[in-house]
Design goal:
Strand 20 and strand 21 form a beta hairpin. The protein is α/β, with parallel strands linked by helices. It has twelve helices and 21 strands. Strands 4, 14, 15, 16, 17, 18, 19, 20 and 21 form a nine-stranded mixed beta sheet that branches. It has two domains: 158 residues, Lyase, Ornithine Decarboxylase, Chain A, domain 1; 250 residues, Alpha-Beta Barrel (TIM Barrel), CATH 3.20.20. Bound molecules: pyridoxal-5'-phosphate. Pyridoxal-5'-phosphate binds next to helix 10.
């Protein structure tokens, strides 16, 4: 099995050297627990694989996967940059210590004030459309600005339709066939286009579509270089590196993957005489996905027309199963190795039938009070959490070598109402 977890001498699930049961009892559930060393190891594995093949290599961590300040600090320490998709992410990344030049802002359908914010903060701006380019022109100080373009290479891939961001149906980027034109336009408008970017989708375990996109993008780079005279400082292939969610899904062999991607990249650099621009990728899920667990307590075991195991988290806490039909492996924290005793539905506490973490899942015997650990809850988990059903957001704990720190406090009812105002006429 390719899912990664550890047990301790009691046979319990251990996260970063701490017993998952102790964490659940001490901090309460539902609780997100992040294993610091796993984030660092994931980063180092990717960095080493690529930089070993090509020296000028930079990772931009896709912050939307997990924007906790501690996670950002850890990755900043490791040397990562940030892929920010909103001004809120720029703000958060700056606050957590990233230098602006290590932040690449890839907005989508942005408003002009957002471009102003990005300009003023000094981050790199990656342009998604000619509309955005022309509005950037109106922003004070944008003259001569170094920019890049996001190009849709007509290749898409991903674990769900919602997560495919290249191809004819995708709203992202400029069309591949208009690339030369938009670079020329940028030059005419007085910009200095020096970067090229794409991102084809998320949750990719098969390297083939990614490789195809690299080739298409490099062909675009070649055309833009020869026809518009652009000398690229960086070429960014986006994120999408997948992780296994089910026990039998394959691992992305990162060393082989890096070798192949860099091989294609270098061939095309040579073919088109593109010099040696920095090669960038933007993994989100790969760095943080398997570094976190959602701990949740079983509060109800119920035999209805089906057998339900009811827990104290719901799709407000972890949306992926409901939103994408995603599989998340579930361990019983005090006996992760126990054999299945039967199939159950693991249901959340939200008032919707779609609020299921698992349907017909083989699980060991589970009783009320048990702690379940939902795996791979580090990416697109807390960052997609909501207040739906008026449930305060859970807390987050960071663990390293058995040392635990609360990095986000569990919300209270007051947090649910903190931004609401009653008009005077409705006051009682
Ligand atoms: C979401 C996103 C990523 C990261 O995707 P992962 O699948 O988490 O690696 C990278 N780049 C951009 C522009 C994104 O929007």
């Amino acid at each position: 099995m390719n899912l990664h977890y550890q047990t301790n001498d009691k046979g319990h699930l251990a996260i970063g050297g701490a017993d998952a049961l102790d964490l659940a009892y001490e901090y309460g559930t539902p609780l997100y627990v992040i294993d610091e060393m796993r984030v660092r190891d994931n980063y180092r594995r990717v960095y080493k694989a690529f930089s070993g093949e090509y020296k000028k290599f930079q990772i931009f961590y896709a912050a939307k996967a997990n924007t906790n300040l501690a996670v950002l600090r850890i990755l900043e320490e490791e040397g990562s940059g940030i892929d920010a998709v909103s001004t809120g992410e720029i703000y958060t990344a700056l606050l957590s210590g990233f230098q602006p030049e290590r932040i690449l802002y890839t907005g989508n359908n942005v408003k002009t004030p957002e471009l102003e914010y990005a300009m003023q903060s000094g981050v790199r701006i990656n342009v998604d459309s000619t509309s955005q380019l022309k509005r950037l022109l109106e922003v004070p100080g944008s003259e001569g600005l170094k920019i890049s373009f996001r190009v849709n290479p007509l290749v898409g891939a991903g674990h769900h339709d919602h997560c495919i961001t290249g191809g004819k149906l995708s709203k992202f980027g400029v069309m591949e066939e208009e690339a030369v034109r938009v670079y020329k336009l940028a030059q005419e408008l007085g910009f200095n286009p020096v970067g090229l970017h794409t991102h084809i989708g998320s949750g990719i375990l098969d390297p083939e579509p990614f490789k195809l996109a690299v080739q298409v993008l490099m062909d675009v780079a070649g055309r833009v270089h020869s026809e518009a005279g652009v000398n690229f400082e960086f070429i960014d292939f986006g994120g999408g590196l997948g992780i296994p969610y089910t026990p039998d899904e394959p691992l992305l062999e990162i060393k082989t993957f890096a070798k192949e991607i860099v091989g294609l990249f270098k061939d095309k650099l040579y073919q088109y005489d593109l010099g040696n621009p920095t090669m960038c990728i933007e993994p989100g899920r790969y760095l943080v996905g398997d570094a976190s667990y959602l701990l949740t307590q079983v509060n109800t075991v119920k035999q209805s027309y089906r057998k339900f195991v009811g827990v104290d988290a719901g799709f407000n806490t972890l949306l992926r199963p409901t939103m994408y039909g995603s599989y998340h492996h579930i361990l019983v924290a005090d006996k992760p190795e126990a054999a299945p005793a039967g199939n159950v539905d693991v249901a959340g506490n939200i008032c919707e039938s779609g609020d299921l973490f698992a349907r017909d899942r083989p699980l060991p015997e589970v009783k009320e009070g048990d702690i379940l650990a939902i795996m791979n809850a580090g990416a697109y988990a807390f960052s997609m959490a909501s207040h739906y059903n008026s449930r305060p957001l859970p807390g987050e704990v960071l663990v390293k070598e058995g040392q635990t720190d609360v990095i986000r406090e569990r919300e209270t009812f007051a947090d649910l109402l903190s931004k609401q105002n009653l008009p005077r006429r409705l006051l009682k």
